[in-house]
Every structure is written in C-alpha cells, then in structure tokens.
Predict the structure.
Amino acid sequence: MKRTHTCGDLRKSDEGKTILLNGWVYRKRDHGGISFINLRDRYGITQVVVDSDSPKELSDLALELKMEYCIAVEGYVRLRPDSMINTDMSTGEVEVVAKKILVLSKSEVLPFMIDEQQKDGTPVIPNEDLRLKYRYLDLRSAPMQHNIALRHKVALAARKYLSANGFYEIETPTFIKSTPEGARDYLVPSRLYPGQFYALPQSPQLYKQILMVSCFDRYFQIARCYRDEDARGDRQPEFTQIDLEMSFVSRDDVLSMTEGMMGSIFKEALNVELPDHFQRISYDDSIEWYGSDKPELRFDMKMQEGSFLAEIGSFQAFKDALSAGGAVKALVVPGAAEKYSRKLIEELEAAAKIYKAKGLGWMKVGEAGLEGGISKFFEGKTADVCNKLGAKKGDLLLFVADAKRKTACASLGAVRSKLGKDLNLCNPDEFAFAWIVDFPMFEWNEEENKWDTAHHMFTMPQEKYHATLESDPGSVKGDLYDLVLNGYELASGSIRIHDPVLQKRIFSIVGFDEAQAEKKFGFLTEAFKYGAPPHGGIAPGLDRLVMLMCKQTSIKEVIAFPKNSFAQSPMDECPSEVDEQQLRELRISFTK
C-alpha cells in the first residue's frame, strides 16, 4: 500500500486514474451510508469517499476511522459535481473513491483538535504548554507546516545566494573555550579533565575571525548558538543565525552583500521584491526620532525636540529637566485627540513609566486652541506650539521630560510603539528594513564604575577616533551596524579589529589587563600576529527573520522543537536530572 501520489497532487486531469494515497485522517463526515474522509499529508488534503454501494467491510472500516489515524487508501479519481467543488483546496475539483483502506496505525483521543476553528473561522489555539508537550501533533497543523516549510526555503535561499557569491560553508566547533561575550555560557563538564569545562558557543565570533586569518576570505554557516539568558518572545536558549564573514572589505561591502542576500531570500521564499538598498539611520538619530535603536518604521510619527516649550510656557517640569542638562521630547499623534480619553492616555503613561519616565504630559489641539492636560501652562501659545511641532486641529500632543536625555527618548519611544499597535498603523504586509549605523563603541557601567564595549571587544573603532580612544571613550563611534526590520533587531555586525596593538588598547579600556586578555582570548590574539587581513561580518538571526516573514511575534512559531518561557521542554521534560553514576564520572556534586 505504498503511495503513488501525495495528498496535494491530484487535479482534474487525473480523472479515472487508479491511485494510492498515504496520510492522516484530518476530518471525517458520515452521511446516510456515505463516508467522507479528508486525508492529509505534508503536501495537502484530498477528499476520499466511501460510497453507499461499497462492500460492507469497507463501509464498516470507514465508520471506525478516528481523527489522526494513519491510513492507506486505494481508489480511483472522480470529478466532483460543480456544486461541490472546494476552491479552498488545491485538490478541490476531484475526490478519490475508495476501493480499499488499510489502517497503518491508530491514534488515541487527541489532547487538542488540530486546526480547530470557531464558527467565524477564527483559529482555536491551545495553550502553549499543551502545544509544546504534544509538539508532534502541533507540527501537523497548517500554520506550523507553513512556517517550517518557509524556514527551509529561507535557509536554502541564503545558502544559494552566499555560495553563488564565493562563500564557503564551514562548520565551527560546538565545544569551545568559555569567553566573555555578554550573556552567560552554557557549560559542558569534561570527564577526561575533571574541573574543566567546554562552553557552548554564544556565536562563532572568534572562530570566523580565525578563518579570515586562515585565508578563506568568505565564510558562512547556518550556525547554532547558545546563551543562558531569560527567554522571551524573540529569544530562546538555543537559536540559529546566518553567520558570515568577509576579508578585505569595508562596511559598505558587508551591507551591500546582506541587502542582496535579503532580497534573494524574500524573492525566493515569499515572492516579495525588496529595494536594492535599505535606508541608513545613525544611532543618535534613531534614538532622537524613535527612542530606540530598533525602530518600527512602518509608520512615520517621529519624535521632535520640545525644549522650546520650557521657554514659551510655565510648566516647571520642562524647565527643571532642561536646567539639569536633560531634554523635553514631543510627539504629535495626527487625528487622535478624540480617540484618546484620559483613561487611554493613562495607559500610554504607564508604557512611558516602564522606561523610568516620571510622567507623560499631554494636550489636545481643539477648536479653540490647546486644551486638556498641561494646556493651562501654555495659554495664548497655541500658534507657537502648533507651528513649531507641525500640529493641527484634532491632533494629540504628548511629551516626556527628564534630566537624562536617553530616558526621555526611550520613554516617549515606548509610547510611540504602543500607539503604532493601538492605532493599527503597521501594515502587516510591509517589510520596513533599515540600517542603524555609527553606534557608540563604549558604554559606561555604573555598577562597576568602568567602561564596557557596547557590542563586543573585537569591533573596530572608526578611524577618526583612534587618537582619542583612551582620553574620551564616551565619544568614540564603532564601525558597527545593525539591520532592523519592523521594530526588531534582525542582524548585528561590525568591521573587526585585525591589529594586535589596537586590540590590546581596547582590552585595556574595558579593564582587561594583559594577563586576563591572554587567558581569555590568547588564541585569537596569537593568530593575529601572523598577518590578519582586514575583515568584517554580520549575523542575521534566522529564527527572528522567519518569524517576521510569517507575521508572528514569537520565534517558538518557527522552531520545530522550542523551549517554553521557562527554558524547559514539556515534550521531553528537559532539563532533567541525570544518574548519580554520570555525576560521579564527571566528579560533580551539588550544594544546596
């Protein structure tokens, strides 16, 4: 009973053919001695009919079939009457008249219905833990089949594009030396060397740089990465990135190659045409305009400078923020004055306070001028405010002031993001890419009273700052670049340091003395002594990319076997305890 066709193959032209299908019972209806079975496999669904004049054994077997029984069906292809053609199915013009059915395996009662819908067609989605416990059933659903198929297409398109552009796919180790890369490492104890550990790679960063020293020039890998950090919608303990590195390149070369790869991926996987080049926004402008270094660009609504309000009005909070060296940021929400009640504005204020704003100032532009909120502090100043901000009647004006400029920007940026969702300003069919460039090289660590690198220690500082690295680290810009898409960071990369002397200077600024640097990164700095080429790279997140292409908000929807929000797998119940004998072999014991 081996299949001759899949459940997505049959068309009108196959009328009269004797065929054999294998698949799962997706839906079943019994009507007055006639049984209709929707048979599903990876390729589609075919309607199978057991007619009323079928042998009793066949009719009885059809009645016994349950949901998700795995069966084989032999029969012939018959055209459906015009009135019964199902245009929602690729096989909807035909049906298979069963002559023989063989049950290959039975299914127990399902813990949830696969692809269940409400009467209005809205999907009924089981709770997450149930889906993950029975992931093999969840993966049979149409959305998950689509998502995993799309993931395959994306990975294949990336491989084809990079291979055609001279890249070698090279694997790097999974067991590596533990190095500080920003997140906690997952550690693997060594049985042969008690007390010593391998680390699972947070990224292939050091190895891909060594491959450039090794004269491979262009490397890529669909790389598995591991970070022991709190899970969230677009994060997992283990994830996958499209990792690439290039020798003898500038920033523009890496950006251009990535744009070409994204264009090829979207064309092959979704038949979507992307622009040849994506807009570039400096980090400073991104923070000032959107309050974020991963801005949502499917709607405009840039934040504006609001310091003039402290001069023309009497609102003390604005004056205090500026006198403390801070900022006043303003946001004009077109036509939203009537939509936003005081209660809804309070919800916006709550979003701002998450980012440490002390409050959210607001006014509405009404028939008689500014009204509500803090408008009493700006009496007679309607024209001045509206002209400066480009506001008009019916607009809602929102403000955040803070002694720290970054807090004011981030807080109002969070409000902007919430408005985008609340007002449905984001077109779900749009893919708004942008490069964020000119990132700060260093950031101040207040807890440890020291400078840290904003990304990692192997990033090349822009050349014009080389002379002032030690004297003014806070002003240094790195040769860094992030690719953002629809409010998510999709990729991060940089031109790397290839000069051992410059690398030692960076180590020194972030508090790594020569002995520490040698212990942690000696194998990399040693390699750089032997003619390291200028090089740079980037690593788009495969999970996050496919998530956005599938219009999802969680990477769990595009990973075959993800962990839950507690970094656990309900299906195989990992992490789990291991035998005492295994622990003894590894010389591991636990303390409470």
Notes: The domain at 299-425 is CATH 3.30.1360.30 (Gyrase A; domain 2). Residues 238 and 565 are 13 Å apart (CA to CA). The chain has three domains: 12-105, 146-281+434-558, 299-425.
